[in-house]
Amino acid sequence: MAAISTVCIAPVALVLAAWSWRAGAKGLALDALAALPLVVPPTAVGFVLLEILSRRSVIGAFLERIGVEVLFTPKAVVLACAVMSFPLMFTAFRVAIETTDRRYFDVARTLGASPFRAFVRVTLPLAWRGLLSGVLLAFCRALGEFGATILIAGNIPGRTQTMALAIYDRVQNGNDHEAAVLVALVVGIAWVLVSISSILIMKQRRRLDA
Amino acid sequence: MIEIDIRLPLAHFMLEVRCALSANVTAIVGPSGAGKTSLIESIAGLRRAHGRIAIDNAVLVDTGQGIDLPPERRSIGYVPQDAALFPHLSVRDNIRFGGADSDRFDSLVAALELAAILSRTPASLSGGERQRVALARALMTRPRLLLLDEPLASIDQPLRERILLYLRRVRDLGIPMIYVTHQPFEALALSSWCVVLRNGAIAAAGPSRSVLADPDVAGSVDNVFEVSHPMHDRELGITRATTTDGLTLVLPYDQVAEARFPIVVRIRADDIVVFGEKPASISSRNIFEGTVSSLRASEGIADLIVTTPAPLTVRITRAAAHDLSLRVGSRVWLALRSRAFRIVG
User: Fold this and answer.
1) Is B94 helix (H, G, I), strand (E, B) or coil?
2) Above 80 in pLDDT, residue B221?
3) What is the pLDDT of residue A208?
4) Is CB count within 10 Å lower at the N or C end of chain A?
5) In this predicted structure, what is the pLDDT of residue A157?
6) Which chain B residue is nearest to residue A125, measuring alpha carbons?
7) How far B76 CA lies from chain A's nearest CA (Å)?
């Protein structure tokens, strides 16, 4: 689920980060909006999603008419993970693109490249390490998603249960041993991925300084 | 003909430039922070200035009419100060970024002598090599104007003379060039026209030689010569070479022996000694007879222009000017020590 949500939001985060970078000051509003889920309580985000997807709302009613059920299904887990990890990915992408030195993009344009071509052929290859690091961070965040997920996806073992929810369950049921194994697993995965992500960022810095 | 009439607000002042440039090579001269780079970035389309920019009737910017072509549609080659080669591409791919024409690629690689470094990455190149690659990359696009930001700033001797040589080759291709420099002698080395920029405004503009001969404009004054046809005499340690004005200069052999002529040399105005009569025996190898055509005295110093007939700028103390009773029309002899010549490139 965490993987699916990460894959789904990556293109969106890239396009928005690129747009925000090009827009400069105008992009600041988007930057702030995208960072919101990072700072408000996850349950607040879950509540907003719940309202949007409920039958009473326009979107919820529409989804019901076309027969798409989201709430309390695995789709809801993906959605909650996506919304909650988006800010981390967006911010990482934004920084990765920002550190590529805009002059390379500018020079590419004086050489006849359109903004799109200059971005794809110059900015992206220079930023790829930072971008990949953002993907890994977002994936880690999605693995640990709890608050928003429990509100819109419930806690159905085997169906809508994330690692965070599974740990919560085990602890509630007094099954500390299983909980410890899960915790060790999550910490291990996160530690490896965050380390890789830091190495990538360091390499990108070093390359651009050279 | 390049017409520029723009305004651009910068951090500390308004860049306001209005000029028409028809010279093959124009230098924009001024101290750091005068707005030089902002000016050429506006021409390249990397900054959005208010006003009008046109090249040979092709309008690039006319904000009054809502025209503001993006950089990719301006056909202007731009070589930034540090070359800004794409770090993830090889030299070959950097050059090809400008265009796919393989005939043009081959001829530029030959003219700028890049064949040996085509497979290298930008990080492994020297400053001079980077400049040449950036130059080739910009020329691949067949620009109608070439902009160069401090092309010699980060390059040491003897590479400077190589870069100047390549820039002269580019000049001879007939592509108009505008280049930015904070060193007046670099402007004299290549340009026929110059615009002096100070705090965002044009302080002076005109033929480089006359504009930059004014110490108020140029700070210290250098005499700059493009010399060719060298005749080396290793035994005596001298090289005779001819300036474009027809003057024969005697240069130190050891400093120019390896150079590929033509080269540009300079001598400071205060490194020239003035005699009231013909010096009989003297160690200076360059003695020129001339007439004082202008004399300007300011606090403690006198700046002369002596027509030999090529004009030389000389700076002496007022005491010396007084003792020699110099005035416009006075006949003088000038002595230029060979070893006081510096090679610009």
Assistant:
1) helix
2) no
3) 67
4) C
5) 79
6) B88
7) 6
Q: What is the pLDDT of residues B19-31, one digit of tens each?
A: 999 888 999 998 8
* A42-56: average pLDDT: 87
**CB B165, CB B226: distance < 8 Å:** no
Using the beta-carbon criterion (under 8 Å), do B44 and A104 form an inter-chain contact?
Answer: no
Inter-chain CB pairs, A–B, below 8 Å: 57
Task: Give the DSSP letter string of chain A.
Answer: -HHHHHHHHHHHHHHHHHHHHHHGGGHHHHHHHHHHHHHS-HHHHHHHHHHHHSTTSHHHHHHHHTT---TTSHHHHHHHHHHHHHHHHHHHHHHHHHTT-HHHHHHHHHTT--HHHHIIIIIHHHHHHHHHHHHHHHHHHHHT--HHHHHHH---TTTT--HHHHHHHHHHTT-HHHHHHHHHHHHHHHHHHHHHHHHHHHHHHHHHH-
For B62, counting Cβ atoms within 10 Å of its Cβ (0-12 exposed, 13-18 middle, 19+ buried), the class is: middle
Chain A positions in Cβ-Cβ contact with residue B46 (cut-off 8 Å)? 106, 109-110
Domain range holding A177? 2-100+129-209
pLDDT given for residue B77 in this prediction = 94
pLDDT at A179 over 80: yes
Query: Looking at beta carbons, which residues of chain B come within 8 Å of A114?
Result: 72
A109 occurs within a structural domain? no
Number of domains in chain A: 1
Can you tell me which residue has the tokens 């001079």?
B128
Tell which of A22, A107, A203 to mutate to test the B interface (max B CBs under 10 Å): A107
CB contact under 8 A, A111 and B98: yes
Domain with residue A39: its CATH number is 1.10.3720.10
Interface of B with A (CB under 8 A): 44-46, 70-72, 74-78, 80, 84, 86-88, 97-99, 123, 137-138, 140-141
Q: Which of B23, B64, B21, B65 is nearest to B43 (CA)?
A: B21
**Beta-carbon separation of B97 and A113 below 8 A:** yes
Domains in chain B and their CATH numbers?
2-219 (3.40.50.300), 223-343 (2.40.50.100)
Which residues from chain B sit within 8 angstroms of residue A206, using beta carbons?
Answer: none
The model's pLDDT over B295-339, given as tens digits with 9 standing for 90+, comes to 888 888 888 889 888 888 899 998 888 888 888 999 999 999 888
pTM for this entry: 0.78
Answer for the pair B249, B243: CB distance below 8 angstroms, yes or no.
Answer: yes
Pairing of strands B145-149, B76-79: parallel
- A106 within some domain: no
**Nearest C-alpha in B relative to A114:** B72
pLDDT exceeds 80 at position B213: no
Residue A110 forms part of a structural domain: no
B14 CB neighbour count, 10 Å cutoff: 13
Confidence check: pLDDT of B15 > 70: yes
> For position B160, what pLDDT does the model report?
74
pLDDT value at residue A122? 94
